[in-house]
Amino acid sequence: MFCKQCGAILVPKKTEYGKWMSCPHGHTQPELNQENKPVITKNREKVEKIEVNDGENILAVYDHKCKKCGYEKAEMREIGAFYGDEDNVVRMKCGKCGHVEQLEGKVS
Ligand SMILES: [Zn+2]
Ligand SMILES: [Zn+2]
């Protein structure tokens, strides 16, 4: 293997993160970094956790206390103004019990 930038023969380099082929002149090897398997595995685990987590609404990220069950995160659904000079109508759907409250006016 040769350095992508200067063509020098790569030498094994030992670091605290592991051992890989490195240019003696210190050039980075983009392709080698992309093949870093531990990082890819971590990303896959994250995706699987999100898919498995179906007990709570992952879209419920807005601070809104449910009047029905007291849960403090809700999913925001903007419906839009019925007339041009009116503010948008916003509905907050509870992330736990699904109770929907309608809010009128601006929601920052
Ligand atoms: Zn180099
Ligand atoms: Zn609720």
Give me the secondary-structure topology.
Layout: E1 11-15, E2 18-22, H1 30-34, H2 37-52, E3 62-63, E4 73-78, E5 89-94, E6 100-104
Antiparallel strand pairs: 1-2, 3-4, 4-5, 5-6
This protein binds zinc ion (2 copies).
Q: Could you describe the 3D structure shown?
A:
There is one protein chain. This protein has 108 residues and is of the alpha+beta class. The chain folds into 2 domains: 11-52, no CATH class; 62-104, Single Sheet (N-terminal domain of TfIIb). It is built from 2 helices and 6 strands; from the N terminus they run ββααββββ. It has helices at residues 30-34, 37-52; strands at 11-15, 18-22, 62-63, 73-78, 89-94, 100-104. A 4-stranded antiparallel sheet has the order 3-4-5-6, with no helix packed on it. Strands 1-2 form a two-stranded antiparallel sheet. The longest helix is centred in the middle third of the chain and has 16 residues, at 37-52. The protein is elongated and about 65 Å long. The termini are far apart. The relative contact order is 0.12. The mean pLDDT is 77. Bound molecules: zinc ion (2 copies). Residues 3, 5-6, 8, 23, 25, 27 line the site of one zinc ion (ZN).
Characteristic terms for this protein:
elongated; N-terminal domain of TfIIb; single chain; binds zinc ion; two-stranded antiparallel ribbon; 27% strand; 2 helices; 2 domains; 108 residues; alpha+beta
* Rg measurement, Å: 26 Å
Q: Order of strands in the sheet with the most strands?
A: 3-4-5-6
List SSEs in N-to-C order: EEHHEEEE
Q: Proportion of β residues?
A: 25-35%
Per CATH, the class of the largest domain reads Mainly Beta
